[in-house]
Write the structure tokens for this entry.
Amino acid sequence: MQEQTKSVEAEKAKGFDFKKFVGKMGPLLALIVLVILVTVLSPGFIQPNNLLNLLRQVSINAVIAFGMTFVILTGGIDLSVGSILALTGAVTATLLSAGISPVIALLAGIALGSLLGFVNGLLIAYGKAAPFIATLATMTIFRGATYVFTNGNPITGAKMNDSFLFQFMGRGYLLGIPFPIFIMAIVYLVLYLLLHKTTFGRKTYALGGNENAAFIAGVKTKMVTIWIYTISGLMAAIAGIILTSRLSSAQPDAGTSYEMDAIAAVVLGGTSLAGGKGRIFGTLIGALIIGTLNNGMNLLGISSFYQQIVKGIVIIIAVLLDRKSNDK
Amino acid sequence: MKIEMKNISKAFGANKVLEGVDFAVESGEVHALMGENGAGKSTLMNILTGLYGDDGGEILVDGQPTSYSGPLDAEQHGISFIHQEMNNFLEMSVVDNMFLNKEIKNKFGMINEDKMRKQAREYLSKLGTNIDVDKPIGTLSVGRQQLIEIAKSIMTDAKIIIMDEPTAALTENEIEQLFGVVNELKKQGVGFIYISHRMEEIFKIADKVTVMRDGISVNEYMTKDVDMKQLVRDMVGREIGDFYPDRDPHFGKTILSVKNLTEKGVFEDVSFDVHEGEILAFSGLMGAGRTEIMRAIFGIDHYNSGEIYLDGKKVKIKDPESAIKHRIGFLTENRKDEGLILADSLRDNIALPSINGFVKHGLIDDKSVDDFANLLMKRLTVKAMNEQVTAGSLSGGNQQKVVLAKWVGSGSRILILDEPTRGVDVGAKREIYDLMNELTDRNVAIIMISSDLPEVLGMSDKIAVVYEGKISGIVDTKGATQESVMTLATGGADNARAN
Ligand SMILES: Nc1ncnc2c1ncn2[C@@H]1O[C@H](COP(=O)(O)OP(=O)(O)OP(=O)(O)O)[C@@H](O)[C@H]1O
Ligand SMILES: [Mg+2]
């Protein structure tokens, strides 16, 4: 009998679970197919310059989406990221224009973004507000605050463009590669480690999978929630700095509907909106899929009206495929 | 009605679970299905009711090849399934849960709540309970939820009722009531498939027994022609000696002392001491407040007054995290809602309470976590492909072992175990008892809540009996009998007789 069990086990170990493989690698396969398709239709796509351009375009959405991954893993959502981006961008730009040292201005922007995220976290953890409602409210509040703060005008200033450091954030090159790509890579690495290699990451998954069980196993669920929204705000602020630097100005309506692209990237990457399941690698792929779609359709001269429709359809297909691979 | 399942096979990915199982049941009989944790009992029933497809074999209903599209379809054809893991909507009321998808409507298509309430109460009272049907179901204990599940299925006019571990969280009284109802329905021609790890029940209620092992059905017996020894041998492939191992306790100093703990309307004036190396059992009827007392001690729920002392020092435990820091562990009774993160791997589940101990230079040392999880899974004989599979893919009993592994691994000095062997097979039960002995030999104190009286008598040193939120007595297990405990549990001699 012992013998028999052993052979069964060996068989089990050898077995290859196709569905599981597709479920894990699906987004990556989709990206590869998409890249091949676009390259065939428009060979210019694969040029190094275009690819670098694509990555730079992707960086802003990717950075926001990395933070959003944590939020969605807990079963939450952060609609306020676009507004946080605008407000932190405006404040940073104003400080720079006023001649404040760029290091301090950048840190102030980042601190503000974290603080706004922290407020979201407080509302959700202690105010027991549903994440959708809480961040819907703060989305309009932060946006309104941006308009009040800027009087509705873009902030540009000679002094702002004097700062090499600030300029470098969105427009600099390092070793021939646009600097935002480095920012994206560093943020990815840090958040990857945080999610997959630290206790904080484990607790994030636990909280998203079953809040009750996580709490009883000693997870400070409220604390973790607050930190996660703080991270999301922080990421929005980093994105805000890249964008402001890139445009050399802070627009009061900057980042409008960026939350949608970020959420789309997370979902395309296979993270479940119900929480508890997903990986940050998937989000990177999701952001690249969206970037490739945008870039490819531009190269093909498809009108931006159609582009929106195509993007929506791709999201629906992704969700349907995800359903399939999760089915028994 | 007669159901025959022939040569059924099923694999989940590479995991072959069923490899040619035969099983049949017909009206008016109770057919028990037995087998170790992970033998494939629940899977077989899920195939019958159409939740899973099969990979081979056929199902005949009254001789006709049949396949149901899903549990609802099966129910409409007279097959009702009481699941091992309850699938209730915790925020919804008892009555709404009971009538989900079969709401009673008036002639305008509006829901007739009064009628539903009345019916719900009627069926619950048949099972001898008067649960408030307007309460959200999530506020009720697992045992109560189980009773509701049972009421739900007898309400459907089913021809065949499948009961997967219906009594795992029920106390003797409720089990008696349940058996009464089963026997009555049997006379009316209802057939039952009865899955349970509680041997005594099988002999009390079943007409036939089928034993499964390693994906096949090894034997079918008439219950009257077989004995417990034979069933165990068929199930685990070997003999198991005594059911309960001998206990040779050596008590150390008082480790936990609870004084006058009170939460109004829930429990009152609860005081007890636990010593190092001691197993203190908590016994009582369902709803007596045993779980609630432990939740308060562990910092999950609030209490109005009273004190908790650890090693003679007064402590304030404000949440589970601080309880764990004080080296207390709490295995909760409801593994699905409170014990496990079903979408997470076994290893992440097992390591969760101890995860802070695995950090090296700020990062988790994955290798040690794997080893840790593997070691505990071996110790508790968890049947799974490896430590990376999700907790949700395990059989009920194996999930229970994972929750136990997680708390055993947390290095607690005080372990609170609420129904530790719920849904666990005979062989594994014995392993768990041995483990409890090993832990108390290492000076761990165990508080065990159990509805299984033989288990309480077999494995504890002292028994605290709870009646309506108060401790009605703490007795030495030596010298205690089922009757003496029941008397305390029902609030005195007179009450005991009336019950
Ligand atoms: N959804 C699933 N995905 C993958 N594996 C599964 C799934 N459901 C069950 N299994 C596997 O099938 C086997 C049989 O499980 P099943 O739940 O039928 O056991 P069981 O006999 O009911 O055990 P128990 O007494 O513990 O309830 C187990 O090895 C389990 O891991
Ligand atoms: Mg089962």
